[in-house]
Q: What sequence folds into this?
């Protein structure tokens, strides 16, 4: 392996695999949340249609960027991110919803629940101090991502108050 093929990080193969396994699980859940948010954006109806439609558009665009960042972090660590619907489906913990017969508030509440689920996953992941003792970059990235999901959760909750 020449220097251009080596991962940028200097983690052991075992550490890189453990971290990227968590990141790929996170990627699958981000994908599920992105897809659900996009679906609700397409299918929202009711008196607040326009405002919720635009609000959800902002959120799915953020989530698309998040997925790209998670996948790039996996590559930085020398592994391969999940790249198929099948693989994402096998890994995601977030339940799909077609949004049919759901009110705008029910959609928002469902998305809020999923954001909180991702926040819990991130908190659980970063609580493993040994996992990140040689990878502060990924730990820092996950803390920033946690903050992003907390802000999105706050925005969703504000629509329900």
A:
């Amino acid at each position: 392996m020449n220097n251009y093929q080596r991962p940028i990080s200097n983690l052991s193969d075992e550490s890189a695999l453990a971290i990227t396994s968590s990141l790929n699980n996170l990627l699958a859940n981000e994908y599920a949340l992105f897809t659900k948010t996009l679906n609700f954006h397409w299918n929202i109806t009711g008196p607040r249609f326009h405002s919720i439609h635009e609000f959800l558009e902002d959120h799915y665009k953020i989530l698309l960027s998040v997925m790209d960042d998670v996948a790039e972090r996996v590559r930085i660590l020398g592994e391969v991110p999940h790249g198929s619907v099948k693989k994402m489906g096998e890994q995601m913990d977030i339940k799909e919803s077609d949004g049919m017969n759901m009110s705008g508030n029910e959609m928002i509440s469902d998305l809020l629940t999923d954001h909180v689920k991702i926040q819990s996953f991130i908190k659980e992941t970063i609580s493993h101090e040994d996992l990140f003792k040689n990878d502060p970059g990924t730990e820092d990235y996950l803390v920033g991502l946690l903050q992003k999901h907390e802000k999105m959760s706050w925005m969703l909750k504000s629509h329900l108050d």
